[in-house]
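User: Can you help me understand a structure? I only have the sequence.
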Amino acid sequence: MQAGEAKQALNKKKLLYIFKKFDRAVTNAELTNFVLKNDYFDYFILQEILNLLIDIKFVNTINQDGHEFFELTESGLETIIMFEDNLPSYFVDEVKEQFHVFTKERENKEAIFSHYYQKSEDEFIVVIEVLDNRKVIFDLSLHVPTKDIATKLCQKWNEDPSELYSQILTTLTQDL
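Assistant: Let's start by predicting it. Here is the structure, written out as tokens:
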């Protein structure tokens, strides 16, 4: 095996290991942020390796609510389990440590979120929630006529949920 092929094989194993640690479907943004933040690969290498893993069916793409997610396939999981011991121990240790940090950050972000679903042909429901210690403390459902409006409302909420939540509370409680 040539040096370039060996490096690419190692990079595939590293990315499979990262997917295994995610243990759920992830967006390209989540994956890219995690990889770049921790300097595991540069953006172009990440995308190249990701596409190779998709081509060989070790990673699936899922489209849900207008978002693309990536997840480890059964064959991808079997492969990383078989070759996990070949990864450098410093890499495995660092990924474990960084996933602990990532999980805490994700839990904080998941405390404020939005999504939408289609109720009928011309009705979409946008759901906006705020959680505290995994309990819903604010829940707002909006009925809108189009998917475009539903998507834009979710995007607007996700741009600055803390500020919008604060504005809603202020408006609702200003005369109390």
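Now, to help you interpret it: Residues 89-109 form the longest helix (21 residues). The two ends are 73 Å apart (CA to CA). Let me know which part you'd like to focus on.
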